[in-house]
Amino acid sequence: MIPQKVIEHLEEYISQEIYVQIAIIKGKEKVSNDLAINKYFKTNHFKDLSEGKPYDHFIEGLRDKCLGKLKNSPMRNKQTDDPIIMELQNKLNNLTDKELDNTYWEIETGEFFTGEQIKELENNRDKLISKFKINTNTNENLVLKIIIDFCQSYEALCQKKYPAAPLPLEILKSVN
Question: What are the residue ranges spanned by the domains of the chain?
Answer without folding.
Answer: 4-64+104-175, 67-100
